[in-house]
Design brief:
- The protein is built from 24 helices and 15 strands.
- By secondary structure, the protein is an alpha/beta fold.
- It folds into 4 domains: 199 residues, Rossmann fold (3-Layer(aba) Sandwich); 179 residues, Ku70, Chain: A, Domain 2; 78 residues, Ku70, Chain: A, domain 4, CATH 1.10.1600.10; 133 residues, Serine Threonine Protein Phosphatase 5, Tetratricopeptide repeat (Alpha Horseshoe).
- The strands form 3 sheets. The protein has a 7-stranded mixed barrel with strand order 7-8-12-15-14-13-11. A 6-stranded mixed beta sheet has the order 3-2-1-4-5-6. It has a two-stranded antiparallel ribbon with strand order 9-10.
- β5, α6 and β6 form a beta-alpha-beta unit.
- The longest helix has 19 residues.
- It is globular, with a radius of gyration of 35 Å.
- The chain starts with a strand and ends in an 11-residue tail after the last helix.
């Protein structure tokens, strides 16, 4: 079980923080929601400073520590903890964050003592008020004393300084910042400064994730030059919470019911539906041309490449020769082995030489013994700007030739001058880009990745909390902080409205005559053949009535040709798939692309046509034609990157018709011809693995407890 965390929130509610109290309350409530989802055993306390009242143990025992209020003692996080954040008082006294830190430190030491629980302080303040002088020594000495106690009890602190843009710095704020950064220099605190509610939401972490090494060993520059390094994950994607299946089959009186759903799979042969195939009679097979090659697990283990663990430097390259678009997956950080002075000096010398020469290193990495794959990547120097933090490297995985997707697009320079933008149009587009620059000169970058939370995750936690109280509640509107992430800043848009209008005036929209003609043909093409036939019959009747006399019978072959044209119209005219050559009609529809939805219409038409063929086939007389249509549809869905369209179509058709004996033979035909579901290896967007695709037509039974 993961070690529980003890957290004390130190919140500044002094006069200068009144405007930000609602944002502080929102971000702290969000933190507690996340703990209720993932870390239900964590304990949280709340301390307010800058209040009119004074209520804390140190004030009663020692005196002093005024205007510090313990709003909630350290307890397991629950609804009561959240209620402590409701209606934060507007303090009337200047906030002294050093007093608040000491009170929070005292609470953690008394609660956890020498236990192994993780302990953390989280300070949110604007640090604008003058701190009181200590009874002895200087304020820096007081910081050193506090830092010594924090190190002794392994307590860390997150300091979030929230100052809105436009606040003028003064000597008091500079002194407070210096004291906070002194905590950081003592390696007991992390200090960040934010100026927006959105950044404040991203700066407050649910938990400090302790770094775990993915590699410890030698960075082998040559056989005689090796540097001891540790590798950590620098970034890692935050996965969406996994929703667990819940069973209500247990009796209500059973208090110890787990309500867990267990899934068991039974594999049965399509030829012998009542016989279960045991594991020792199942084997994986791999497609090789038209045949399936079975490979046992023992053979597969023998074939696997099992490299030796290690990190080897292959050489150096110019930084400009490796574009950032080649970087794959997460970023790792290479640091010298802690406490190893020689390794620290060697890494620093190598990193600074690479920085000066604008070079990067190419590495071959095997993180673990007998690892199945080899990581091939680029090592970029990271020169530290903090005295007590050594230089290091960032490592990004590079693609192999099979991983690169080259999409050739025509350049503007290859187009005629009439198709290229004018100077006025180019200037209008340039102004739009400058207007929406998230890092304008002289200002802090907006939506920095370090402080920008995932709006999908934040909205999920908020809704989950609401559903726990109101089961029938609808999703609430998007929070204002999250709206700043998902939508452009309305103030910027309104302020720069003339630039946007100028952009619209610079690009005059005209109707393309070729497109107009294509749309006209498309409208004609989508006339229903039945309506055409009825219209022809009505016109013929009107013509006969008007003439008042019978006409000579036409050539029977011409009449038959017209009937075929009405019943089976060509794709170029009506955009339908006919019986004469359905695959050719389908391919013609795909090639037309006269509108953005043409491909989707072609796929839908082919799905309808193949369904009719399968359903209306008598003793398999249309199965060969249906097989050709399935092959063409599958190929098109792979090319157009629409694997789900094909997979869902086949799955639904199979589920609907699998009990029809005659139709089962058609699915056996598909299986024998390897016309299976589209798997990930064929289309990256597919959710179907190769094994799932091969075993799709095998019956599966799922039971739940």
């Amino acid at each position: 079980r993961a070690t529980r965390e003890g957290l004390v929130l130190l919140l500044d509610v002094g006069p200068s923080m009144h405007r930000a109290l609602q944002e502080v309350k929102n971000v702290c409530t969000t933190l507690l929601r996340k703990k209720l989802v993932f870390h239900r055993s964590d304990e949280v306390g709340v301390v307010l400073f800058g209040t009119k009242e004074t209520h804390n143990d140190l004030a009663r025992e020692l005196g002093g520590y005024k205007h510090v209020l313990v709003k909630h003692d350290i307890k397991v996080v629950d609804e009561e903890t959240k209620n402590a954040l409701e209606n934060l008082p507007r303090g009337t006294a200047p906030g002294d964050f050093l007093d608040a830190i000491v009170v929070g430190l005292d609470m953690l030491i008394k609660r956890f003592g020498d236990t192994k629980a993780k302990q953390r302080l989280c300070l949110i303040t604007d640090a604008q008020h003058l701190l009181r002088d200590p009874p002895q020594g200087t304020k820096e000495d007081q910081v050193d004393t506090i830092a010594d106690q924090m190190k002794k009890h392994d307590i860390k602190m997150d300091c979030i300084v929230f100052r809105e843009s436009g606040v003028q710095h003064n000597s008091v704020m500079d002194e407070n910042d210096r004291l906070l950064y002194h905590f950081r220099d003592r390696s007991v605190a992390k200090v960040v400064q934010v100026d927006t509610p959105t950044a404040l939401l991203g700066a407050l972490k649910t938990r400090n994730v302790l770094p775990v090494t993915i590699f410890r060993g030698d960075l082998e520059v040559s056989s005689t030059f090796k540097i001891k390094v540790w590798a950590y994950k620098k970034t890692s994607e935050e996965k969406f919470p996994t929703l667990k299946k819940y069973s209500d089959k247990a009796p209500p009186s059973d208090q110890f019911a787990s309500h867990e759903v267990k899934v068991d799979y039974e594999y049965k042969s399509i030829l012998e539906p009542d016989t279960v195939v045991p594991p020792d009679q199942r084997i994986k097979g791999y497609l090789y041309g038209p045949q399936v090659v079975p490979i046992s697990s023992a053979e597969w283990e023998a074939v696997k490449f099992k490299p030796e663990k290690g990190v080897k430097l292959l050489g150096f390259a110019d930084r400009s020769s490796i574009p950032r678009s080649y970087f794959m997956k997460d970023v790792n950080s290479f640091v010298p082995e802690p406490g190893n002075t020689k390794a620290i000096v060697a890494v620093s010398a190598l990193a600074r030489a690479m920085q000066e020469m604008n070079k990067v290193a190419i590495l071959r990495c095997v993180w673990r013994q007998n690892q199945a794959n080899v990581a091939f990547g680029v090592l970029t120097p990271n020169i530290s700007s903090v005295n007590n933090v050594p230089d290091s490297f960032y490592f990004n995985i590079l693609p192999f030739a099979e991983d690169i997707r080259d999409f050739p697009f025509r350049s503007f320079s290859s187009l005629p001058p009439s198709s290229q933008p004018t100077e006025e149009q180019q200037e209008a587009a340039d102004n739009l880009v400058k207007m929406l620059d998230l890092a304008p000169p002289g200002r802090e970058e907006i939506l920095r990745p370090d402080f920008t939370p995932n709006p999908m995750l934040e909205r999920f936690y908020s809704y989950l909390d609401l559903k726990s109280k109101q089961p029938d509640a609808n999703p609430p509107p998007l929070d204002s902080c999250l709206r700043r992430i998902t939508e452009p800043d309305p103030d910027v848009i309104n302020y720069r409205a003339p630039l946007i209008q100028n952009l619209g005036k610079s690009f005059e929209l005209k109707e393309n005559p070729k497109r107009k003609k294509a749309r006209t043909q498309e409208r004609l093409a989508y006339t229903d053949p039945d309506d055409q036939a009825k219209s022809s019959e009505n016109n013929a009747e009107k013509a006969t009535a008007a003439d008042g006399q019978a006409k000579k019978p036409e050539d029977p072959y011409a009449e038959k040709a017209r009937a075929i044209e009405v019943l089976f119209p060509s794709t170029e005219k009506v955009g339908k798939i006919g019986d004469v050559n359905p695959v050719k009609d389908f391919e013609a529809m795909l090639a037309e692309r006269s509108s953005s939805i043409w491909v989707q219409k072609a796929i839908e038409e082919m799905k309808k046509y193949t369904t009719n063929l399968v359903q209306n086939s008598l003793q398999g007389d249309y199965y060969e034609k249906a097989l050709e249509c399935f092959v063409a549809l599958r190929k098109a869905c792979i090319i157009e990157q629409e694997p789900e369209e094909y997979n869902q179509f086949v799955t639904k058709l199979y589920e609907r018709l699998k009990k029809v004996d005659d139709v089962v033979k058609f699915f056996q035909l598909l299986s024998s011809k390897n016309v299976l579901l589209i798997c990930k290896e064929e289309a990256p967007d597919s959710d179907v693995t190769e094994e799932m695709a091969r075993s799709f037509f095998m019956k599966t039974e799922i039971s739940s407890e």
